[in-house]
Amino acid sequence: MKKNFTIRQALCMYILLLSWAICIPQGVQAASAGAAAGVPPLVGSIPPPAVGEPDMRGAFVHVTDLAPDALLDIRYYSAYNFVGSRIDGYHAPTAILSRPAAEALARAASAARDRGYVLRIFDAYRPQTAVDHFVRWASDLSDQSTKEIFYPEVDKSRLFDLGYIAAKSGHSRGSTVDLTLVERSSGRELDMGSPFDFFGPISHHGAASLTPEQTANRELLKSIMEKAGFRPYPEEWWHYTLAEEPYPETYFDFPVQ
Ligand SMILES: [Zn+2]
Q1: How confident is the model at residue 58 (pLDDT cuts 50, 70, 90)?
Q2: Is 249 inside a domain boundary?
Q3: Catalytic site residues?
Q4: Strand 117-123 relative to strand 176-183, pairing
Q5: What backbone phi and psi angles, to 5 degrees, belong to 94?
Q6: Which of 60, 126, 149, 172 suits a disulfide with 54, CB 3.0-4.6 Å?
């Protein structure tokens, strides 16, 4: 009798353990996996690893860690942007990219240096929270405070239709950067024919109204970036995406800090 009871008890224990293993909360599993990989366990609900806090020592890096001479002019941390205020999700004036994109940008910085220029970065990885802020701003037609600087010829109600504002941005995938070139000797930014984030046809590559010098300046940036592994975006001279981006389907939402 005693032996039978022990076997039954062992069987019950086995079933209990099995059901616990099957029903273990996802978050606990993720935290355990993170701890095993050297990432501190997170408390509370765990976001999917792909869109949660990145491990800055691995998948994402600060751009200036790999390209230390790159200049940062992070407009969405400042009020000098088309919204007219600091954008949600920007907690520091810094630039973050996926490691492969940052490595490619370091190659571009080196090529620029050889020609007497430095890179000036306006934006890199952009959290989804920031894109949501853009969408809220674009929906508020009563706020036209930055129109004169950033979209003088475009009706604000058409910013979605014309593709200037969208619910998703490639920047949130972590391998896209907005930038220009600065002459090392003078510290002067090259004349690209339109300012960063100007909503209008003059910002397109090959815009007819550009002077030969402005066209040459855009071509110089394009050739440096393409040789480093980026592809241009026809509508914005400043916007480049790593051709072989590591997270082509993932829109991240950790803050810039
Ligand atoms: Zn961009």
Answers
A1: confident
A2: no
A3: 236
A4: antiparallel
A5: -130, 170
A6: 60
